Automatic annotation (TrEMBL):
Annotated source species: Streptomyces rubellomurinus (strain ATCC 31215)
Protein name: LuxR family transcriptional regulator
CDD domains: LuxR_C_like, REC_NarL-like
Record bears the keyword DNA-binding: yes
SUPFAM superfamilies, sorted: C-terminal effector domain of the bipartite response regulators, CheY-like
GO BP: phosphorelay signal transduction system; regulation of DNA-templated transcription
Sample GO molecular function, one term: DNA binding
PANTHER family: TRANSCRIPTIONAL REGULATORY PROTEIN NARL-RELATED (PTHR43214:SF24), TWO-COMPONENT RESPONSE REGULATOR (PTHR43214)
Superkingdom of origin organism: Bacteria
Length: 220
């Protein structure tokens, strides 16, 4: 399957570099470029890419606001694209804010070409890509009554709880399948059940709930 990508960065050179890296892959295609957040939102709605590589600091509308807008309003007749936030430092406060805004993953600007391609493929497949620093920030808010109550109401089965812990640990469906000696489709079914019970939009929201409720700790 060809994965369509939108690049959102206010620096022409950065976009050109990312385009070169991505289009060197046979399954990745850049369908548009945006120089600010407002343009990114408009192009995402018009082009419906699978993944948006979103810089944070952009004029007109920053990447955080653009992410919130895309997650909140979506795109016409379709699901919002996966948002891969591009950041300079793993422990940048913007990372935590982007996670709360609905970002699906994070990519360091110094990432190698293979890492960029891998990150895009992960998100397009429905996985998440989170930094440990962001998870520590989430865990700092554990005991959140709302998150704790939602986790209690979910009444996860033992297997679902096990799968959620592994998802929160950053494992992909394939890695979880290997760890638990299950088929990948079985893992997907468990993940879908967890999302439904938690009322989570995606894996990232489920991870937020897992950490903020105290269900998992960063050390896990």
């Amino acid at each position: 399957m060809m994965i369509d990508i939108l690049l959102a960065d206010d620096e022409d050179l950065v976009r050109a570099g990312l385009r070169a890296v991505l289009e060197a892959q046979g399954d990745l295609r850049v369908v548009g470029e945006a120089a600010d957040g407002a343009e990114a939102v408009a192009l995402a709605r018009a082009l419906r890419p699978h993944v948006v590589l979103m810089d944070v600091r952009m004029p007109v509308l920053d990447g955080l606001a653009a992410t919130r807008e895309l997650v909140r309003s979506g795109v016409p007749d379709g699901q919002p694209p996966k948002i891969l936030v591009v950041t300079t430092f793993e422990n940048d406060d913007y990372v935590y804010q982007a996670l709360r805004a609905g970002a699906d993953g994070f990519l360091l600007k110094r990432a190698r070409a293979a890492e960029v391609a891998h990150a895009v493929r992960l998100l397009a497949a429905g996985e998440s890509l989170l930094f440990p620093a962001a998870l520590r920030r989430l865990a700092a808010g554990r005991g959140n009554p709302t998150a704790r109550d939602a986790m209690a109401r979910a009444a996860l089965t033992e297997r679902e709880a096990e799968v959620l812990r592994l998802v929160a640990g950053g494992l992909t469906n394939g890695e979880i399948a290997e760890r638990l000696f299950l088929g990948v489709q079985t893992v997907k079914t468990h993940v879908s059940s967890v999302l439904a019970k938690l009322g989570a939009r995606d894996r990232t929201q489920a991870v937020i709930a897992a950490y903020e409720s105290g269900f998992v700790e960063p050390s896990e």
